[in-house]
């Protein structure tokens, strides 16, 4: 029997590879856990870390009477049980066909209803506010290290193919938690919720950028100009809002304008790539070079002289009435500026459009096999034009997230390579909007973390620069196959020539 | 009857010349690109100069004055750009009237500044051109320049050899460092399929942060000073100056002949050497190369390593020839400028050489323009013009169509970029 080459994709080959990978991940997790036990546990045995779960007082669930808590506990437990129970699938199958993910939503709601009274009983509540609590660093290190090692052992021993990633992320999160608690020992309180909230805020423009990249590349055009579209959106929106002194209507229009500027550069890319069939990567890089020079010029020549054109106006913060009161998750997800909600909406809409509409099907077909699409009568060039221009629009709005999102003025170089990180995120998310969302949140977390660790420089043994390099190193690891072999759209970056 | 039908239409000599002149070639494309860039820059000057804008507001009351004042402003700015970068006619006149060492130095000063800036760019652009020729997009120029520079600095701090050996050792260290960093991206690309654009881009940011860290360690930091700058390179480790006997302000150094030799070496590498041919082949048609027995993995790694080696050399030329010490923003925009230089030179060694000199012109000329124009037209205008020119040169189809040139198909390349994996 001829040996099957490892290059050829067969079921057994995939299984061998993924098992080897889960073994490697398991060993890596075990090493991390050992480090955690030895280092965190051993280093400073007497110190405590104060963890602040409350982010601000207004957005915390009110206390409930002790009797009602039992009712909540029962209801929550019931919902969770029903959601987790395997038989539920059969009995609720018909209801669930329409709303996907209903089951997980039910599980989350149930878990919250359980966790809430438990938290209240645990004495965390203090006058309607989630109180800070202090953890002994050494014990936490031992416990979390043991959990990490256990996860690693499970992965390495069982070689779980499918659920490997969930275990891996769980183990990594536990490790990160231990790291944070260790870093903040005996010092300022660790604002866990605050870090998470800023992570979501930071990931806004990453979400926009990676969704933009996804749209373009699904149509088979490499959009490396996202960085340039970010700059165009950031600059145009801040100038527009400043001209109108930050009135409410002008902010809405500024978002639109930012999108239009992004779309403009998307159009330039499309013309170059589709009409003149230039190398898409080169065109993208040149567009970024142009936008960099242009924003620098406008900054030094105009905005430095007329400082009132470069004001700092933030988009309004919207706290969703009930949801923002959920402990921890509420302020993180539902008490953010409007752009964050736009980002979530963009993910949902683009996922629906790409995978559930005719336009999306055509865009995907054009990105996979343009000749076949042409044969069945799809206008390849037109589909690619529309996808790239819409992608540019999305990236432009993301650019407004740099200035209007946090409410800061435009600063030359403020995009600092996030456009390229968005591309890596798109790959990490495997060219899917929801994947892009998850990967953006992960990257946003590392970015927010490296920003927050500046507060604890005294405790940090590692130089601060190495922490700041974390997002970049993770990106390299990601694209070099830590998440598994990636498969881009087949015609990605290949110019289409009509014969 | 049949005779007239088959005979090609008669064209006169002038018409023949006109048709020849419309043949698209690189020179014409470059000329038109420069023209587009300058016109674009002119519009920007008008739009950002308040006096001119008010003048255009009353255009119909004095149209001639408006146009002439706009034209004069733009012309003056470009004149400063030219004179600040290449030849100042006033000092040339002085030299002719009164030949002396000082006047000669004054004439050479702008050109010396231009070439000094261009020297590391020539080498860096060549490094990227090697990558582009085999369809590898090494964006990590900045990181590799930093590595080269830092290693050269390390050598000059730790050894104290005679100048020749010191400089040679610096070159070797920088070349190896750059080759290792870029080679790592090549290995990742070859064995895991990680796209080199993202890996090298991320290595840029990582290297900048590592540089920031190294500059505060005791190895590099000057004792007692916390301004982020490193110890200076000793005279024995510096590249000697050429023309400093004329005037100490002439900073052209021996990096320029090194860059010149590198151009010749890369020329030889692509035209005459076996490996160079293999790299070209892999770049143009990987499938055909594989069939012909060329290992694409090996050539990817070799190509990235060579590219990184030249970028490391560029970092060494920068730090030993120009800066003499490292600051946290050492390397600056060199990586990206080198990309655009390589695009401007169409990945040909001599093209890169002149492309880098063009960048040097725009850099020194832009500074002169900012200093001498009455409204202080900012230096970054020259960067905008430069970006527009590169845009036009990188996509010649646009220029060819806009100016109705003929037979441009040979200039338009559609190969390259095959997606992410």
Secondary structure layout:
The complex is a heterodimer of chains A (499) and B (421).
Chain A: H1 11-43, E1 48-52, H2 66-84, H3 87-91, H4 93-98, H5 102-121, E2 125-126, E3 129-130, E4 133-136, H6 137-158, H7 164-183, E5 190-191, H8 192-218, H9 226-243, H10 248-275, H11 280-303, E6 317-319, H12 329-334, E7 335-337, H13 338-356, H14 358-368, H15 370-375, H16 380-403, H17 418-428, H18 433-452, H19 464-468, H20 470-482
Parallel strand pairs in A: 1-5
Antiparallel strand pairs in A: 1-4, 2-3, 6-7
Helix pairs in contact in A: 1-6, 1-7, 2-5, 6-7, 8-13, 8-16, 8-17, 8-18, 9-10, 9-11, 9-16, 9-17, 10-11, 10-16, 13-14, 13-18, 14-16, 17-18, 17-20
Chain B: H1 2-6, H2 13-22, H3 26-48, H4 50-57, H5 63-85, H6 89-97, H7 101-133, H8 141-158, H9 163-192, H10 196-214, H11 255-272, H12 274-284, H13 286-291, H14 296-323, H15 334-344, H16 349-372, H17 380-394, H18 396-402
Helix pairs in contact in B: 3-17, 5-16, 6-7, 7-11, 7-14, 7-15, 7-16, 8-9, 8-10, 8-14, 8-15, 9-10, 9-14, 11-12, 11-16, 12-14, 15-16, 15-17, 16-17
């Amino acid at each position: 029997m001829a040996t099957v080459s490892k290059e050829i994709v067969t079921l057994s080959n995939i299984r061998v590879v993924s098992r080897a990978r889960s073994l490697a991940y398991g060993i890596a997790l075990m090493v991390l856990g050992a480090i955690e036990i030895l280092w965190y546990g051993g280093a400073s045995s007497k110190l405590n870390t104060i963890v602040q779960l409350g982010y601000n007082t207004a957005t915390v669930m009110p206390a409930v009477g002790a009797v009602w808590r039992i009712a909540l506990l029962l209801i929550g437990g019931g919902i969770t049980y029903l959601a987790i129970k395997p038989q539920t699938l059969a009995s609720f199958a018909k209801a669930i066909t329409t709303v996907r993910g209903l089951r997980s939503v039910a599980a989350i709601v149930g878990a919250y209803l359980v966790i809430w009274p438990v938290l209240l009983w645990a004495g965390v509540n203090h006058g309607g506010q989630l109180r800070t609590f202090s953890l002994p660093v050494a014990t936490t290190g031992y416990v979390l290290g043991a959990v990490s090692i256990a996860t690693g052992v499970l992965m390495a021993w069982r070689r779980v193919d499918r659920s490997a990633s969930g275990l891996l992320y769980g183990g990594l999160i536990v490790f990160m938690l231990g790291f944070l608690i260790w870093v903040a020992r005996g010092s300022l309180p660790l604002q866990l919720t605050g870090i998470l909230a800023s992570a979501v805020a930071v990931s806004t423009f990453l979400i926009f950028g990676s969704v933009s990249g996804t749209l373009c590349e699904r149509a088979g055009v490499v959009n490396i100009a996202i960085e340039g579209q970010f700059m165009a959106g950031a600059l145009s929106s801040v100038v527009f809002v400043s001209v109108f002194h930050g009135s409410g209507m002008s902010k809405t229009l500024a978002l639109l304008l930012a999108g239009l500027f992004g779309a403009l550069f998307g159009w330039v890319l499309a013309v170059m790539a589709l009409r003149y069939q230039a190398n898409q990567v080169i065109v993208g890089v040149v567009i970024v070079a142009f936008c960099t020079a242009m924003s620098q010029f406008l900054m030094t020549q105009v905005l430095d002289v007329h400082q009132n054109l470069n004001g700092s106006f933030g988009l309004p913060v919207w706290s969703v009435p009930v949801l923002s009161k959920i402990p921890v998750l509420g302020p993180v997800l539902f008490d953010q500026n409007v752009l964050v909600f736009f980002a979530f909406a963009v993910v949902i809409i683009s996922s629906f459009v790409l995978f559930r509409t005719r336009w999306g099907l055509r865009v995907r077909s054009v990105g996979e096999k343009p000749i076949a699409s042409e044969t069945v009568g799809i206008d390849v060039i037109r589909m690619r034009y529309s996808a790239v221009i819409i992608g540019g629009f999305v990236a432009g709005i993301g650019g407004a997230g740099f200035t209007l999102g946090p409410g800061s003025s435009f600063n030359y170089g403020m995009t600092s390579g996030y456009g390229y990180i968005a591309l890596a995120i798109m790959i990490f998310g495997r060219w899917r909007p929801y994947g892009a969302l998850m990967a953006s949140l992960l990257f946003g977390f590392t970015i927010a973390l490296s920003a927050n660790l500046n507060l604890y420089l005294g405790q940090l043994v590692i130089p601060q620069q190495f922490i700041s390099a974390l997002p970049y190193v993770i990106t390299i690891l990601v694209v070099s196959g830590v998440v598994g072999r990636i498969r881009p759209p087949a015609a990605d970056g290949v110019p289409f020539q009509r014969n | 009857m049949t005779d007239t039908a088959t005979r090609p239409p008669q064209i006169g000599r002038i018409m023949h010349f006109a048709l020849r002149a419309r043949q698209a070639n690189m020179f014409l494309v470059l000329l038109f690109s420069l023209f587009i860039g300058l016109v674009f820059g002119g519009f920007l000057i008008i739009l950002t100069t308040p006096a001119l804008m008010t003048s255009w507001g009353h255009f119909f009351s004095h149209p001639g004055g408006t146009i002439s004042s706009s034209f004069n402003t733009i012309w003056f700015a470009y004149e400063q750009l030219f004179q600040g970068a290449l030849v100042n006619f006033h000092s040339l006149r002085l030299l002719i009237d009164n030949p002396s060492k000082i006047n000669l130095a004054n004439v050479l000063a702008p050109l010396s500044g231009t070439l000094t800036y261009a020297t590391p760019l020539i080498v860096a652009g060549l490094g990227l051109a090697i990558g582009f020729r085999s369809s590898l997009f090494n964006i990590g120029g900045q990181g590799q320049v930093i590595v080269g520079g830092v290693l050269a600095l390390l050598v000059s701090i730790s050894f104290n050899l005679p100048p020749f050996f010191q400089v040679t050792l610096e070159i070797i260290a920088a070349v190896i460092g750059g080759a290792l960093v870029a080679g790592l991206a090549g290995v990742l690309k070859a064995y895991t399929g990680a796209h080199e654009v993202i890996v090298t881009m991320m290595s840029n940011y990582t290297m900048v942060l590592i540089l920031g860290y190294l500059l505060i360690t005791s190895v590099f930091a000057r004792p007692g000073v916390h301004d982020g700058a490193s110890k200076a390179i000793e005279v024995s480790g510096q590249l000697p100056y050429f023309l400093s006997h004329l005037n100490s302000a002439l900073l052209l150094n021996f990096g320029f002949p090194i860059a010149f030799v590198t151009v010749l070496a890369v020329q030889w590498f692509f035209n005459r050497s076996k490996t160079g041919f293999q790299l070209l082949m892999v770049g143009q048609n990987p499938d055909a190369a594989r069939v012909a027995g060329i290992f694409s993995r090996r050539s990817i790694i070799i190509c990235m390593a060579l590219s990184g080696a030249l970028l490391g050399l560029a970092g060494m030329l920068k730090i030993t020839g120009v800066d003499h010490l490292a600051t946290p923003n050492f390397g600056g925009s060199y990586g990206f400028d080198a990309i655009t230089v390589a695009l401007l030179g169409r990945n040909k060694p001599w093209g890169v050489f002149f492309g880098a000199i063009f960048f040097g012109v725009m850099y020194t000329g832009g500074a002169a323009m900012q200093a001498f124009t009455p409204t202080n037209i900012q230096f970054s205008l020259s960067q905008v013009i430069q970006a527009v020119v590169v845009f036009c040169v990188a996509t010649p189809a646009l220029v060819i169509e806009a100016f109705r040139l003929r037979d441009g198909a040979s200039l338009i390349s559609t190969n390259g970029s095959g997606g992410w994996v």
